[in-house]
Write a structure and sequence with these properties.
heterodimer; A: about 140 residues; mainly alpha; Inhibitor Of Apoptosis Protein (2mihbC-IAP-1), Chain A; three-stranded antiparallel beta sheet; about 50% helix; globular; B: about 325 residues; 12 helices; 3 strands; binds zinc ion; Borealin_C (chain B); (Mediterranean fruit fly) hypothetical protein (chain B); (Mediterranean fruit fly) hypothetical protein (chain A); mitosis (chain A); nucleus (chain A)
């Protein structure tokens, strides 16, 4: 099975997403623990300790070695459906996984649509300015 | 030759008002486009919600209750593997699944195309990809349900959709009762919304019609709730008590699934979104002609909906 097409919806792909991470596997916020708690890497060279939740899209940085990913996730995004289950992928039932999956898809769509609408609004503002200047 | 003097202020006023008009026009059409976009977005989100809902509906509860860890441990290699299993499963199981197409789209396309103006079109393909992905997932999970070994124990443990204490209570109710076993046997196959003591009721009850609906749904062919069931509305003043967990509201029909409820002489005949195996002819006798006409209209309406759905939804 080629899981790569599922993107960061799958824990194994979230693990793969970490290109650079300041904490090793012995730390509370190791890559594995981060991925289990729903985070994928959204950092860069300059800010390597930046992660985002695949369901609620919450982005967190400034991690410390003793931080517990689940606890931080719950603290910063208590509304997240994945956090509400509070279990890693393997411990969810198929039904629960589909539920989480659907919430994540909808969140992405929402984000996408909002961006489209925002782009359209900006474009219209520009045209309006032209109209006003060129009267 | 004199001419009518146009005062400067009037001229300026005209210019200003024409500009204002243009602006108003612009804003009106902008609002229109914006609204159309919002509607389109909303309907697409609704359509994906619908797809997920149907996915959950069509998937057998024994599969839905499996642990993801067990499912993933199967490590299915190809989509063909999943299909093979899903096909053999479909042949042996009553709950069929719709096969998604094999088109493989990368969900991460999303990020690459956000700057283009066709975001909505793009996200449609993302949706398709995701819904197909989830179908694949489902096929994979179905295989899981079929494989013998440690998994089948998990399957045997949780044969139903409901994860409440309902099953246990049902089982103990069946065990402890001393009344006619034939009635009790059919209970297993009927709706779990039924209160366990219903058959003891002296009042006329839908349970009495077990000769109509009872044999229709032998428990051996269906572990889940049946495709159709008889229910009755509570009588005025009758207290509806749920023995299966949280209290029920009497006038809410069971499940959030689409269903058709037909009032008959023997109670409410409730059709669920599942394939009905067979139907006794005396059901027709229990439905009066007015109701039959109403069903006919409903049938037409449903056909209309399906025609629309088949026309617009991607296969
Ligand atoms: Zn989250």
């Amino acid at each position: 099975m080629d899981y790569s097409k599922f993107g960061n919806m799958m824990e194994r792909n979230r693990i793969e997403s970490f290109k650079k991470w300041p904490f090793d596997d012995k730390k509370a916020c190791s890559v594995k623990k981060m991925a289990e708690a729903g985070f994928y890497w959204s950092g860069n060279e300059r800010e390597p300790d930046t992660v985002t939740c695949f369901v609620c899209n919450k982005t967190l940085d400034g991690w410390e070695p003793t931080d517990d990913p689940w606890k931080e996730h719950a603290k910063h995004a208590p509304q997240c459906n994945f956090v509400k289950y509070g279990r890693k992928e393997a411990d969810l039932t198929v039904q629960e996984f589909i539920n989480v999956f659907s919430v994540a898809v909808k969140a992405r769509m929402d984000k996408h649509f909002n961006k489209t609408l925002e782009d359209f609004r900006k474009c219209a503002e520009k045209e309006k300015e032209k109209l006003l200047l060129g009267k | 030759m004199p001419r009518t003097k146009v005062s400067k202020s009037t001229k300026r006023f005209r210019e200003a008002s024409s500009c204002e008009e243009k602006l108003r026009e612009f804003e009106a059409s902008f609002d229109g486009y914006m609204h159309a976009l919002e509607m389109k977005a909303k309907s697409q989100i609704e359509s994906i919600e619908e797809k997920f809902y149907m996915l959950l509906m069509r998937t057998d509860s024994s599969v839905l209750n499996l642990r993801m860890g067990d499912v993933l441990a199967l490590n299915l290699k190809t989509l063909e593997d999943c299909k093979k299993y899903s096909n053999t499963l479909a042949a042996s199981s009553t709950s069929g699944t719709k096969q998604g197409s094999n088109k493989q789209l990368n969900p991460n396309d999303e990020e690459d195309s956000t700057n283009s103006g066709s975001a909505i079109g793009v996200s449609t393909s993302i949706l398709t990809a995701y819904s197909q992905s989830s179908l694949k997932q489902q096929q994979q999970q179905q295989q899981r349900g079929r494989t013998p070994g440690p998994l089948s124990s998990a399957r045997a443990r949780r044969p139903r959709r409901s994860r409440s204490v309902c099953d246990e209570i049902h089982a103990s109710a069946i065990k402890s009762t001393t009344s006619s076993s034939s009635i009790m046997d059919t209970r297993i196959s009927r709706s779990k919304m039924r209160t366990p003591t219903a058959s003891r009721s002296k009042a006329f009850s839908a349970d009495r019609s077990s000769q109509i609906c009872g044999q229709q749904f032998p428990s051996s062919t269906s572990v889940q709730s049946p495709a159709a069931a008889f229910l009755r509305w509570p009588k005025p003043g009758e207290v509806v008590l749920s023995k299966c967990g949280s209290p029920v509201v009497a006038h809410v029909m069971p499940d959030k699934y689409a269903n058709v409820n037909i009032p008959t002489k023997n109670g409410i005949f409730s059709l669920r979104p599942k394939k009905l195996e067979e139907l006794k002819t005396d059901i027709i006798e229990a439905i009066d002609s007015d109701t039959l006409n109403q069903i006919r209209t409903l049938h037409d309406n449903l056909n209309l909906i399906m025609k629309m759905a088949d026309g617009s939804l991607p296969k």
